[in-house]
Automatic annotation (TrEMBL):
<dbReference type="InterPro" id="IPR058533">
    <property type="entry name" value="Cation_efflux_TM"/>
</dbReference>
<keyword id="KW-0406">Ion transport</keyword>
<feature type="transmembrane region" description="Helical">
    <location>
        <begin position="113"/>
        <end position="133"/>
    </location>
</feature>
<protein>
    <submittedName>
        <fullName>Cation transporter</fullName>
    </submittedName>
</protein>
<dbReference type="InterPro" id="IPR027469">
    <property type="entry name" value="Cation_efflux_TMD_sf"/>
</dbReference>
<keyword id="KW-0813">Transport</keyword>
<dbReference type="Pfam" id="PF01545">
    <property type="entry name" value="Cation_efflux"/>
</dbReference>
<keyword id="KW-0862">Zinc</keyword>
<dbReference type="GO" id="GO:0005886">
    <property type="term" value="C:plasma membrane"/>
</dbReference>
<dbReference type="InterPro" id="IPR050681">
    <property type="entry name" value="CDF/SLC30A"/>
</dbReference>
<keyword id="KW-0472">Membrane</keyword>
<keyword id="KW-0864">Zinc transport</keyword>
<feature type="domain" description="Cation efflux protein transmembrane">
    <location>
        <begin position="23"/>
        <end position="201"/>
    </location>
</feature>
<feature type="transmembrane region" description="Helical">
    <location>
        <begin position="176"/>
        <end position="194"/>
    </location>
</feature>
<keyword id="KW-1133">Transmembrane helix</keyword>
<feature type="transmembrane region" description="Helical">
    <location>
        <begin position="153"/>
        <end position="170"/>
    </location>
</feature>
<feature type="transmembrane region" description="Helical">
    <location>
        <begin position="56"/>
        <end position="76"/>
    </location>
</feature>
Length: 220
């Protein structure tokens, strides 16, 4: 599921060139799979694929924040996290509304498209999880990124099972149920990210009073 902890919380994590390279590869894989799944979900009529694309977007944004704003002031990292959380929540709301519309007016999605893309997504997340496996015992940020990739692979299995349900039952309900669950997790994750970012913005550096003067060196 979409990761709710930003791996950019500690800039020291990115000092390892192997860690940076792994993040770049993970970013490329997740960004590419987000584009593939969102297009396949819309054209194939699968709300579960659209919801699963949220996971790829959330992780891609997580890796981008890790690489882009690590080392900056906490206020800038919090603003980037706020943008990520808001976008993730909006996408979750879109999938939730789309699932509701599909329940009332939709047709049965293409199970073949769901199955093929779902398996491809599972392979992609499995590759990322294996690549990040050696960092699982690092600091909290390294471990959280690996756990998120592992959990995303579990979400992909749910999409593949939904495709089997659609094919076997000739019904859209397996697809819609998985979509609602994953969209709800996306909404929850987005709000959690925004809540934490808001807290970090409020607890940022306190500005000095306008009448404050720096003591002269050597003054007693």
């Amino acid at each position: 599921m979409a990761c709710t902890s930003c791996a950019s919380d500690k800039a020291g994590t990115l000092n390892d060139p192997k860690w940076r390279r792994a993040l770049w590869i993970a970013l490329a894989i997740n960004g590419g799979m987000f584009a593939i799944e969102i297009v396949a979900g819309i054209t194939g009529g699968s709300k579960a694929l659209q919801a699963d694309a949220l996971d790829f977007f959330g992780d891609a944004a997580n890796y981008a924040i890790s690489l882009g704003v690590a080392g900056m002031a906490i206020t800038w990292r919090a603003r980037a996290a706020m943008l990520k959380g808001a976008t993730l929540a909006l996408l979750g709301l879109y999938v939730l509304l789309a699932a509701g519309w599909g329940a009332l007016h939709g047709t049965v999605p293409h199970a073949e498209v769901m199955g093929i893309v779902g398996v491809a997504a599972l392979i992609a997340n499995a590759l990322v999880a294996v690549m990040l496996y050696r960092f699982r015992s690092g600091d909290a940020n390294m471990r959280s990124v690996w756990i998120c990739s592992r959990n995303d692979a579990i979400g992909n299995i749910a999409v593949v099972l939904a495709a089997g349900g659609v094919f076997g039952l000739n019904s859209a309900w397996p697809d819609l149920m998985v979509a609602v669950l994953m969209a709800a997790l996306g909404l929850s994750g987005g709000f959690q990210i925004m809540r934490q970012a808001r807290s970090e913005l409020r607890s940022g550096p306190t500005p000095l009073p306008s009448d404050y003067r720096q003591p002269l060196h050597g003054s007693r």
